[in-house]
User: What shape does this take?
Amino acid sequence: MTSGVGASVINTTALTKRYPRVTALDGLTMDIGPGVTGLVGANGAGKSTLIKILLGLAPATEGTARVLGHDSAAEGTAIREQVGYMPEHDCLPPDVSATEFVVHMGRMSGLPPTAARERTADTLRHVGLYEERYRPMGGYSTGMKQRVKLAQALVHDPRLVLLDEPTNGLDPAGRDDMLGLIRRIHTDFGISVLVTSHLLGELERTSDHIVVIDGGRLLRSQTTASFTEATASLAVEVTDSDTHPDGAAALRAALAGRGVEATPAPGQLLVVETADEAVYDTVRDAVAELGLGLVRMEQRRHRIAEVFQEAQP
Ligand SMILES: Nc1ncnc2c1ncn2[C@@H]1O[C@H](COP(=O)(O)OP(=O)(O)OP(=O)(O)O)[C@@H](O)[C@H]1O
Assistant: This one.
């Protein structure tokens, strides 16, 4: 169980998956609660492998995974009844319409015929497919195909959906639409979402929580807000003076004397890596004592992409 925000939705303990030539997951231990969680990692980081193990579609070599309280190794059927899955690659039969396909997937998930048709109409409308839903999918754009894949993951009214690279192949506008749809899956229906991407920045707006994996190992797991807050920095720009012809250098030395490390950046800027309020006062006092002019002092939040790059070995 997670502390605070309710029951754990996905939980893994020392999860390892070895293929003959590569270790795709390497002792992965993590705990994911309700809401939208972004699973970020470069190509080959192990995201798809993790999803298949969670769904009970592939066995782990070692360790355990639990989804909605069920053991992935032993209770795959129970998990798949309550979990929707949007696979990464194109898997749609070209001669079939979106409506026929999603009804079929609903029936496969155990819905009776009438319920399957009704749910299909609702989910296709939700993902933004209207008249086109009666046409064969072979003629669909990538964006429309991604929407059908999303609809079939939602048709049986799951409690959780696992979306593997849903923005793959989309242009920036299509990507924004898809991310908006994903966010609404949670806000409109209360369904929890695990969404993967190798594009680090895009999950920042969509997710409540971010998990970063690399080489099958956990790099970070934290709320999106704390991800950026904890890594905020303070940018300070000062003028030069007669006494201090290089104002930035003088301030840097003065701050070092007060135990605060500042790094020079282009354009007379000093950057202090901190989220600590007290550092504001230290900087302001040092600037005043040196008799420099304070041009600006602003807190800059790092973008997740930068944080991730810094975490790379
Ligand atoms: N069935 C398999 N047999 C052998 N190796 C595999 C198999 N599936 C995945 N791998 C390897 O395991 C590693 C992790 O692959 P995985 O597909 O889980 O990564 P990913 O993060 O989803 O990346 P991508 O987005 O490129 O699919 C890769 O090195 C991949 O080549």
